[in-house]
Amino acid sequence: MRMNRRGFLQTLAIGGGALSAPSFANARQDKALSPGALGLLYDATKCVGCQACVIACKEVNGMPPEFSDPDHLWDAPLGLSASTRNVIALYKEGGRHSFVRQSCMHCVDPACVSACPVKALTKEPKTGVVHYDAGTCIGCRYCMVACPFNVPKFEWGSAYGKIVKCQLCDHLLAKGEKPGCSSACPTGAIQFGGVQKLLQEAHARLKAAPGAYYPKVYGEKEGGGTQVIFLSALPFEKLGLPDLPDVSSATLSETIMHTTYKGFGMPIFLFALFAFIARRNLQKGKEE
Amino acid sequence: MATAKKFSYNSGSGKPLADLSRRQFIKFCGCVAAALGMPASMAPKIARAIEQGGRLPVVWLSFQGCTGCTESLLRSTHPTLEKLIFEIISLEYHETLNAGAGIQAEAALKETLNRDAGRFVLVAEGAIPLADKGVYVRINEQAGVDLLNEVAPKALAVIAIGSCASWGGIPSAGPNPTGAKSVGSILEGRPVVNIPGCPPNPYNFLSTVLYFATFGKLPELDAHNRPKFAYGRLIHENCERRPHFDAGRFAKAFGDDGHRKGFCLYKLGCKGPETFANCQVVKFGDVEASPISIGHPCFGCTESGVGFEKPMFQRADIQRFTPPAFYPHVFEPRGEGVTPLTAALGGVAFGGAIGAGYALTNRLFKATDGKEGADKPKGGGAHEDE
Ligand code: SF4
Ligand code: SF4
Ligand code: SF4
Ligand code: SF4
C-alpha cells in the first residue's frame, strides 16, 4: 500500500479529530474572579491621548525610552516592547477617532500562566495580578505565543533576555500606592480599583449615557474575563481588542491537552503512524 | 550711621514700605509666594516677616563679571529696585549702586561687617580668578579671592548670583587664562545658593532672599545648589514652542518659513531640553520675553557644561524623552520599526519563510510519493492535490 499526501493528511485528520473530541470528564472549568481582584477601567471616551500614562509607566518602572524616528527626539514606542509596558494607540476612521490603551489585561484565567512550563508567570491569588518572576523564567517565550492580546514581550537585545509586561505596578500596590498610569491620568480615563466595583462603575456609565458608548463592557466576559476592562464609543474590534469567546483560551488548550493525553491516546496513535510509515518505506526499499 | 548717610532716606531700621500701598505690598508678597510655588495664603506671612523682622542687611560683592546681574536687577519692576533696596532689604554695600565711593564706600563695608556680622546675606557676582595669586580682580588693593574669604565667614548666608559666580560662566570658558572659579568652589564646606543665569532672573534672587527672610532657612536646593522652585524643571518643559517640538515642526534656519511661524528651535541648537531654569515661566524684563520667545535658541546659560561650553548651534542632549504628538496605529505592525523599508524587508523575510516551508513540504512528499512528484516545479510552484 502506498500512502500519498492526501491519504496522509486524511489519516492525521481522522486520528486527530477522534482524539480531540472533548471528553467532558477532562474539561477544565474557567477560573473565577477573586473577590479581592484589582484592576483598571479604561474609558476610551475620556482619554485625550496625552500619553501621560505612558511617561508615568516608564518612570515608575524605570524603563528606557524607545526611539522610532531617525533623530531620536521622542520616546515613541510603536507598540508594547521590552521597554514599553503600556501604549496609547489611535484609531481613525472617517471623521471619528478613538484612543485605546494597550497593556496586560490581567486575565481572570490567563493563558500565559497556563502556558508557562516553570511557573515564572503566576496569578496572585488575592489581587489576581499576573506577576512575572525573572529568576524562574527559562526564556522559552511560550507566554508570548499563548497570550491572546499579544502582551508579553521579550528582551531580544539582551543575552539573558527576560519577559516584560505590565504587572499592575504591584511594587507600588505593596506600598499602598496606585499604579503609575492611573495616578498620572489627568482625565480619569484610567481608573484603578477592585474589579467588582469597576464593573459596577462601567455599567453605571453605560446606563447613564447609553448613546455615548458601544453597549458592552469589554473584558467582563471576553476570554474568560479580564481584570482590565474597557469602555469605548466604537466597537472594540476596531480598537484592536480581539473578539474572543467567553471561555478562556487556557481552558480550551488545557482541555485539549488533557484530553489528547487521556489514556496516553495521542502518543500511541503517533507511534503507530510513524511505525507504519517506517515499515512501508522499508518494504519499498526492498522492492526496488 | 555710615549707611544712613550713604542712602539718604535709608534709616537702617524703622518702618519699611513707606512708599508701597498696603495693597501693592500684599500683592507683591503674593507674587513672591507664587514664584516660590507656595499658596497665596503665604503672602501675609511673607509680609509679616518683612515688616517685623526688619530689613535683611545685604552685602553685594562684584568680582569677575560684566555687572549684567546687577543690570538685570535694576530692571525688575515689581518691586522696582529702589523699593527693593530701601524698603524690603537693606542694601549695605554694592559697588555699582553705592552712593559714596573710595574710602567712604570701603568704610561702609567695614562698618557693616562689624555691626551686622552673622546676620547679613552676602551676594557674590562674578567668578573668582585664582591664577597669579588672584591679581585679575583687585578691589581696594585686595585680591578678589581674599575679599571673598574675608567677608564670607561673617555672612549668615551666601548667594552666588549669575552663571559666573555659580559655576564659572564666561571667565571660566576654555582656556580660562585667569583661573576663574565659582564662588561655591572657593567657599568649600559652606552652603552657597547658586542663582545661575546670564543674566539671572531677578525674581529668582528676590524670591530666594524673601524665602530666607520669611522662614529663616534656605529654600530646597537641587544637586547644583540651585533653588528647586526656580531650577526644578527644564526650559523645554515650560516652553511655549513645545507643541511644535512634539508635533515635529522645526525651524531649520534663521528666517526660514518655520522660524517665521514660531516653530521649535531645537534644530537650531536650542539647549532647552538640557537646561534647568524657569525663564519660560517668569520671563525677563517684565515684557514677557525670553530668548526663545524672540526666536533665538536657549543657549543653556544656567547649566554648567552647556552654556559657553557647547557650540551655540549644536543640538542638545535631550534629558527627558517623552512621546511625540502622534500615536502608533491600533494595528501597527509590531516589533520592527515601521518605515516603508522595514515593512518591505519584513515582507521579503516572511515570504521567504513561506517559500522555504513550501519547498520543504514538496521535498518531503517527493520522498514519500516516489517518482510521482519528480517533475513538479521546485519550491513555491503551484502544487495540486492528487
Ligand atoms: S493579557 Fe496576556 S500576558 Fe496579560 S494576563 Fe492575559 S494572557 Fe497573560
Ligand atoms: S499598571 Fe503600572 S506597569 Fe501597568 S501599565 Fe500602568 S503604570 Fe505601567
Ligand atoms: S493619561 Fe489618561 S487621558 Fe492621557 S493618554 Fe493616558 S489614558 Fe489617555
Ligand atoms: S527645543 Fe527649545 S524651542 Fe523647542 S520646545 Fe524645547 S525649549 Fe522650546
Please, could you describe this protein's structure?
The complex is a heterodimer of chains A (288) and B (386). Helices cover 33% and strands 14% of the residues of chain A. Chain A has 288 residues and is α+β, with helices and mostly antiparallel strands. Chain A has two domains: 5-28 and 252-287; 38-247, Alpha-Beta Plaits (2-Layer Sandwich), CATH 3.30.70. A three-stranded mixed β-sheet of chain A has the order 8-1-9. Chain A is globular, with a radius of gyration of 23 Å. Residues 11-24 of chain A have low confidence and may be disordered. Chain B is of the alpha/beta class and 386 residues long. Chain B folds into two domains: 4-230, NADH:ubiquinone oxidoreductase-like, 20kDa subunit (Rossmann fold); 233-324, Cytochrome-c3 Hydrogenase, Chain A, domain 2 (Irregular), CATH 4.10.480.10. Chain B is 37% helix and 9% strand. Chain B is built from 16 helices and nine strands. Chain B has a five-stranded parallel β-sheet with strand order 2-1-3-7-9, with helices on both faces. The longest helix of chain B has 30 residues, at 340-369. Chains A and B meet through helix 1, strand 2 and helix 9 of A and helix 16 of B. Bound molecules: iron/sulfur cluster (SF4) (4 copies). Residues 235-236, 239, 241-242, 245, 264-266, 270, 272-273, 292, 298 of chain B line the site of one iron/sulfur cluster.
What brief labels describe this structure?
heterodimer; A: 288 residues; alpha+beta; Alpha-Beta Plaits; 2 domains; three-stranded mixed beta sheet; two-stranded antiparallel sheet; 9 strands; 33% helix; globular; B: Rossmann fold; 37% helix; disordered N terminus; disordered C terminus
Short description:
Chain A has 288 residues and is an alpha+beta fold.
Shape of chain B: globular
The total number of structural domains of chain B is 2
SS element count, helices of chain B: 16
**Overall tally of structural domains of chain A:** 2
User: Can you give the helix content of chain A as a percent range?
Assistant: 25-40%
Fraction of residues in H or I helices of chain B: 25-40%
Biggest pleated-sheet summary of chain A: 3 strands, mixed
